[in-house]
Each structure stands twice: as C-alpha cells, then as structure tokens.
Design brief:
Blueprint (H helix, E strand, L loop, with lengths): L1 E3 L5 E3 L9 H13 L15 E5 L16 E5 H7 L3 H32 L1
Antiparallel strand pairs: 1-2, 3-4
C-alpha cells in the first residue's frame, strides 16, 4: 500500500519520514546547527534550500536515523547529486565531518592559547 509524502511522491508505508516527529525535527536542527547552517559539499557553502542528508540510509540503518553523526547538511542541488548513490558517498561525508571537527578543535586550541597568553 502506498501513500503520498509531503513532497507529493508515492512511497510504501513505513519507509517515509514523519517531518513532524520531534526526534526527527531535533535531528535535522542539530545537524544544521553543527554544520553552521551551510551546505558542507566542498566548494558549495550555500545557505539556502538546506536539507539534512542521512549518510547511512534511513531504510538500511534504522538505529542511526536520529544520530547526528549520521547526518550532513547539503543544499537541495548538492543533495540531488548524491541521492540514489548514498553508499558511494558515505565514507566521503564521514571524512568531511572529521575534517570539520579537526578544524573546530584547532580553532578552540588557538583561542585557548591566546586567552592564556593574553
């Protein structure tokens, strides 16, 4: 049995996301906030039409659906590039998140050193 989703596409019951689910809303909010409300695709950085992409797919990894480590912010245009090829891009997105965390740590260390010297 199928039903229409919020985007007007027909999908099988049980495979859709309830955008009003508080856990799902929090997941999307937290991922966007962590990513600075910008597309994380290298070279893009768009701040409009943002979507949260599940690195490990919603259907194959139900236990990771609301884990912010399994999400990355992409603009609609970049999200379309990876849709249907999630497995190909999963390690790439994980690496992007690692690089971003390393940069945050470096900035925190710099600030701490400056405060100590200052």
């Amino acid at each position: 049995m199928s039903r229409k989703t919020y985007r007007g596409k027909y999908v099988k019951r049980g495979s859709t996301r309830d955008m009003k689910n508080p856990a799902y809303a929090k997941f999307r909010h937290d991922v966007r906030e962590r990513d600075g409300n910008a597309c994380k695709w290298p070279g893009c950085g768009s701040r409009s039409r943002l979507e949260v992409h599940h690195i490990r797919t919603w259907s194959a990894y139900p236990s990771m659906r609301f884990d912010i480590c399994n999400g990355i912010t992409l603009c609609n245009k970049c999200h379309k590039k990876v849709t249907g090829s999630e497995d190909v891009f999963a390690d790439f997105f994980i690496k992007i998140l690692e690089w971003n965390m390393i940069e945050k740590i470096k900035k925190m260390d710099k600030k701490k050193k400056k405060d100590e010297d200052g």
